[in-house]
Fold this protein.
Amino acid sequence: MKANVLELVRNVASDIFGIPADKITAESSPETIERWDSVQHLNLVLALEEKVNVQFEPEDIEQMKNIGAVATLVEKRQSATH
Amino acid sequence: MNNSTPNSTPAEHNPSSLRAEVDELFAQGAFDLAARRLAELWRCDAASATASFVTSRLDELRNKLALTKFRLAILRSFTVEPIAPLLRSEAFAYGIDLEVHVGDFNTYVQDMLDSQSSLYRFAPNAVVLAVRADQAAPELWRDFADLAPEVARQAAERVVRGYEQWISAFRQHSQAALIVHSLERPPSPSLGVLDSQSEAGQSGLLRQINRELRRIAGEFHGVYCLDYDALVARHGSEHWHDERKWLTARLPIAAGYLLPMAREWIRFIVPLSGRTAKVLVVDLDNTLWDGVIGEDGMGGIKVGSEYPGAAYQTLQRALLDLSRKGILLAVCSKNNFDDAMEALEKHPGMLVRAKHFAALRINWTDKAQNLREIAQDLNLGIDALAFLDDSPFEREQVRAALPEVTVIDLPKSPLEYASAVRDCAVFERLTLSSEDQQRTEMYAAQRRLTEAEQSFQSKEDFFHFLEQEAELEPVSDLTLARVAQLTQKTNQFNLTTRRYSESQIAEMAKQPEWHIFSIRVRDRFGDHGVVGVAIAHDEGEQCEIDTFLLSCRVIGRTVETALLAHLAESAARRGRKRLVGWFLPTKKNAPARDFYQQHGFERQEINGTGSLWTLDLKRSTLRCPDWIKLKVTTASELGGKN
């Protein structure tokens, strides 16, 4: 996974979950981030889709168990569409 | 702000430094500046993630800022929750603190019919009815191929009747504005190209429903149509829709189009909340034409039907459209006056001419100072101005000096200038009065009048010379929109500054003890249209003035005395003993402060919000000045009550 993609996901997650980006790591997940519920999960997905102009498959969204997994999927969809 | 190079953007801000700056300013307690930076962040990075940041900071700032509060309820057949932060951020950029209530999925019918529903408990200022065709007309949307033509036609009629019933119930329970989404047509009609061959096809019937929705909207006060079908078409149906999100999250709109949806709602919310601009002040060089007139000359600047001048003509066409909606145009340009006027009057490619502008400031003075003078010239508050300039430097200066002015960010390419103006919600209007359409000419008449006034010995001579005629009449369907508009827009000569919607005025007019008058004024310089409103209600022995206002165009020419005298005479005729009224001071209504005192009222009470004045009708000598020819129309002549 490229560092800049992880960086981008951390920044978006920081806005969505309302916590500083430097407190978010690849391992951060709904267990460690209080506001990460199903509503904010959808908001995270939409914000990323808008930002990098990709579309996730429904299966992708279920696999987004932590920030690292989200970044991996962003990369996967980016290479699929561009 | 530091800037060494005058032609660059004064502050080089990027989204992440702006975020940090907002939090820093907030921690220092510099709330106004924090809010300005927050709005700047939104302007340079309007997106879903930013919206989360903006709304979270806004929640902490909102009570510390002078924002216009507005309550919006969204009734819906699909997921709209992710749009709410975008909507609130966009509203914030227009100076509006938006509170959003979202109804449950598909409970819009119950919500509108039941006067006790959460919708009405929320007490919204406006309601959006965001229902998609698959829900509003399921047979036409899904099962069209199975329907006999007659059955399909009946289904369409049923849909229309449904809307008619809900909307009429809504109007009985609430005076809020209602914005109804039209139904989109299917991207792939069930019969393929055959569908386009008849008006009774799937698309044809949905189009017919939309026509009926526009008719219904026209029949109720404060009900408006949002052309959802056209919105989707503008962005492209295939891009707009996201089938995956629809099937997994009931969200039919793709991530990239949630912002355009929010912005379409904002185009209604801004005029409904009164945050509109009344004047657009434009720069000249590289804004109305390509080039610098002082250097390039008449032959060097480019504006015309060919590229690159064509982009500037397209912008000028957008300006003329604004002018037809009653928005005044003005020029503020750093130039030699004669150079600029020659281009404005004589350049063959120009569509806007000097006569289209209500005020001109062509000089080398600071633009903020010129804008202040333009507002004064036109008798308007500084917040009534919008500013269009290609220079980021000038824009930033105006933003810093006059934060009340709406500054429009022009994109880099002149090809996008016209849409930047057309997309700016401060120019949206939901109704148009004949006054709006004639405003530019009326201001020209005003200029001639000011010149005349200066040549008279006494005020009385001048008043006689004016040959003013005033027509007073109870509010009617013909004047309702204008009366509501005046209560919403008049700031200076306004004793109580109470804002009313059309439906609130209509509701008041039905009450026998309430009396609502409008006054129309003509003089030798022209017809000013309906320029004043008085609302009063009887209670026991007294008649209380609820609202008394006059457009700034006619202040100080004793029309206000004529209107007040009529209130007093008609109250006495109805057997009232006293006429009373509050003066509620605001930042802007100082011109009305001494009004009651000057007309023989005595102060009865004073408290934290204002002062209460009373006039003994038996002893009153209040009369219509003899230089005004007053014509009073009664309700029976109009065919109404009173």
Notes: Residues 149-173 of chain B form the longest helix (25 residues).
